Amino acid sequence: MNTSTSKNSISPYIRFTREEWSDLRTITPLTLTEEDLENLQGINERLSFDEVSDIYLPLSRLLNLYVQATQELYNATNTFLGKHAEKVPYIIGIAGSVAVGKSTTARILQALLSRWPNHPKVDLVTTDGFLFPNAILEQRGIMKRKGFPESYDIKRLIRFLSDVKSGSRKVMAPVYSHLSYDILTDQMQVIEQPDILIVEGLNVLQIPKDEQLRPAPRVFVSDFFDFSIYVDADEKNISNWYIERFKVLRETAFKNPKSYFHRYASLTDEQAVNTAKEIWQEINAVNLQYNILPTRFRADLILEKGLKHRVQKVMLRKL
Ligand SMILES: Nc1ncnc2c1ncn2[C@@H]1O[C@H](COP(=O)(O)OP(=O)(O)OP(=O)(O)O)[C@@H](O)[C@H]1O
Ligand SMILES: CC(C)(CO)[C@@H](O)C(=O)NCCC(=O)O
């Protein structure tokens, strides 16, 4: 294959430039129409046709082949065992910093993957729902550590994934509201045997920190993934995206009197930028450096974004 592999043969990854990766779309059977793009722009209006067809369409084809191969392997086991087992969802994990675009990537893939006939039902959960409720975070004095490993109920997330992978017909996931900045006590997301489940969150490739100290056998979130993706970008770009998003939220969601951050709605442009910068520096940049970035090379695929969220490089783990 004419990719950059030869330059870096000891890397566990095959590296593709944007051009090398996008060339692969010519062997992708599905194409996109303007109408498909319009629908995808419901996810993000700044999403360009080129970005979807050059990057996400080939990625959906790769995943389609992987899902198909896993489904065949699963059928082979059942034939051998002479039984008809429950359908087990293929699970894809998506990791990366706050504001790097994990949920946008997840929603684009959800839309594209659901167009393939052998896996039409694609569900999406975010690990936000597995944050401890504010009452617990307050009690533990970690309200300013939202997104850090200690802010998540990892046992609950592992139980959820284990139930999904055991073929349970109905599995409930808790729901987080960015409006109230807390877990919703009166809502649950129901997962009913999708063909694919995408699990998106900054912590999905993390292993407990004390693992080196107590190497007892443990189960990690990523043990349940059939495939994982890390969305990567320079910190400078991510912090700009965070600040930009904060400015948009000030004009939209924060205006709602029910918003936990309603007080930010009245900030001037300059104050909003300064507030977003402070939150970024104190919380999200620290989390990125210490807890998220170190998980990057556990991913099966790394999407490296440049300015304006344009993917510049793709790295695919060699099998
Ligand atoms: N492919 C893209 N093209 C253009 N803009 C994008 C793209 N992906 C994300 N964005 C923008 O970047 C910002 C962050 O995206 P998103 O909310 O998807 O990030 P996230 O990683 O899920 O964040 P969080 O961890 O805070 O939930 C948003 O303002 C979004 O509109
Ligand atoms: C809920 C998380 C942790 C992850 O999505 C994040 O959006 C968050 O709220 N972080 C805390 C700091 C901040 O408000 O950006």
From TrEMBL:
Keywords: ATP-binding, Coenzyme A biosynthesis, Cytoplasm, Kinase, Nucleotide-binding, Transferase
Gene3D superfamilies: P-loop containing nucleotide triphosphate hydrolases (3.40.50.300)
Reactions catalysed: (R)-pantothenate + ATP = (R)-4'-phosphopantothenate + ADP + H(+)
Localization per record: Cytoplasm
UniProt: ATP binding residues: G96, S97, V98, A99, V100, G101, K102, S103
Molecular function as annotated in GO: pantothenate kinase activity
InterPro entries the UniProt entry points to: P-loop_NTPase, PanK, PRK/URK
Keyword check for Nuclease: no
Name of the protein in question: Pantothenate kinase
UniProt organism field: Fodinisporobacter ferrooxydans
